[in-house]
């Protein structure tokens, strides 16, 4: 840890505050398509880059979910946000849960988008090889993105996703985060937590879709609810950006 605050940017000036943590394949720019649909009068949003990604690509670190959670809390401190909600996309949702455990009085609610559960994401040997090899092999990244969006997108869309992922993440960080989000299990620490939770899953996501939410998040969080997007796979911020913005603000506005 260097004591640096990770790069971030704030959109809006409303009283309802929210931190957003990106997925394994994207930096904070992955939320770009949904940002034009957000209400900056009612809400304030802080978009973060995890260490090893985006503007933090060259920042040193351990590249763990615990570190990402600590970095996000440090951003909230820098902004003077005593309480806030957290949107976590995929691996970002695992870090959001650690924020909840570290600072339960500060996290008002969690919105998990295709969210990795606190138990991690078990994989067989072949799948693990595909994911681990994605750090150095863009073809692996493409195969994973294609699979987790139901094989619905054209070459141009897939190529753009892979290109951004390669350009905006360091291989070392990308590989290290995998061990943390996929293999670490702390679900017993969150069981029964009373925080309000919104889960957004894509109908075309075979990895972290509705069934996965039913067997994990919805069992452990008594006040969790599930919204399945019919036109999305694993990447709702890019596949269904307007619908996601509406769902987020409807939930936060309560």
UniProtKB/TrEMBL annotation:
The protein's name in its UniProt record: Pimeloyl-ACP methyl ester carboxylesterase
Listed InterPro entries: AB_hydrolase_1, AB_hydrolase_fold, AB_hydrolase_sf
Source organism per UniProt: Streptomyces syringium
UniProt xrefs under PANTHER family: MONOACYLGLYCEROL LIPASE (PTHR43798)
Domain AB hydrolase-1 as annotated: residue spans: 19-241
Highest taxon, organism lineage: Bacteria
């Amino acid at each position: 840890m260097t004591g640096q605050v990770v790069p971030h940017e704030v959109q809006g000036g409303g009283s309802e505050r929210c931190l957003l943590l990106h997925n394994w394949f994207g930096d904070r720019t992955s939320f770009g398509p949904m940002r034009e649909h957000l209400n900056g009068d009612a809400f304030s949003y802080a978009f973060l880059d995890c260490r090893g990604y985006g503007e933090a690509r060259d920042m040193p670190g351990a590249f763990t979910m615990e570190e990402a959670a600590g970095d996000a809390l440090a951003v909230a401190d820098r902004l003077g946000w005593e309480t806030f909600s957290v949107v976590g996309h995929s691996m970002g949702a695992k870090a959001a849960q650690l924020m909840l455990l570290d600072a339960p009085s500060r996290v008002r609610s969690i919105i998990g988008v295709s969210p990795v559960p606190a138990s991690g994401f078990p994989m067989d040997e072949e799948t693990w090889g595909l994911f681990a090899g994605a750090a150095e092999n863009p073809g692996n990244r493409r195969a994973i993105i294609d699979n987790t969006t139901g094989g619905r997108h054209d070459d141009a869309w897939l190529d753009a996703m892979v290109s951004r992922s390669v350009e905006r993440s360091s291989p070392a960080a990308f590989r290290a985060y995998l061990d943390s989000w996929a293999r670490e299990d702390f679900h017993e620490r969150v069981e029964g937590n009373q925080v309000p939770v919104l889960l957004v899953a894509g109908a075309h996501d075979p990895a972290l879709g509705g069934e996965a939410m039913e067997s994990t998040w919805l069992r452990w969080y008594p006040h969790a609810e599930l919204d399945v997007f019919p036109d999305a796979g694993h990447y709702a911020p890019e596949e269904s950006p307007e619908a996601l913005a509406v769902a987020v603000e409807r939930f936060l506005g309560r």
